[in-house]
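Internal tracking record. Fields below are filled automatically when a chain is submitted to the structure queue. Please do not edit lines marked as system-generated. If the sequence contains nonstandard residues, flag them in the REMARKS field before resubmitting.
Queue: standard
Priority: normal
Entity type: single polypeptide chain
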Amino acid sequence: MAKFDPVAVAMLVDAVVRAKAKIVVSSSWAVWGLDNVRFHFEANGISWDLVHEDWMTPRDLPRGAHRSDEIKAWLAKHPEVTLWVALEDGHLDVENLIRCDTYDGLLMEHWRLLRVILGLEPPEPVHTGEGIDGCRHQWRGVGDGTYECVRCDSKAKRGDQHCPWTAGPPWAG
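SYSTEM-GENERATED OUTPUT FOLLOWS
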C-alpha cells in the first residue's frame, strides 16, 4: 500500500474541507481503478466524500495527449468548477499549478499557495485600519484561528475581545 505523509494529508484535507472543494485524480494511479484508488485514499486518511463523483480526468483522449489535456478536458466538462488547483510533481501546462517535489510532497509553502488559490486566504495581508495603538494593522492568518499583524507585534485570536473581527477576517471560513 502507498503511504502518504500524514502532515501533507492533513493540510490537503483542511484546504479541501474549508474550501468545500473536491479532489479529482489525474494520475497514473487512475489505471488502478476506482476501488484501489479509494482504498489507498481512505487508508491514508482522505475520506472518499472529499472526492468528486467524476473522480478521474478522462483517459480516452487522442494519442499523444498530455495530463494537462486531461485536466483541461475535465474542466471543460465541468464548467461549474471555477476554483481549482493542480498539485503535481512534474510539469503541466495549466493555470493554478502547484509543483510539489516527488519526494518531499506537499509542503507548508504549497499549502499556503493552495489556500490562496482556493480563496481561503488573501494573497497579501488585509488592512483593517488604524488600531488603538496607532498601527495600521495588516493582519494575516497564522493558523488555529490566530492572526498577527505584519507591521507590529499585535496578535489576535478569533473570539478574543481585541480581535478586529467577530468571526475572523473576511477570508476565513
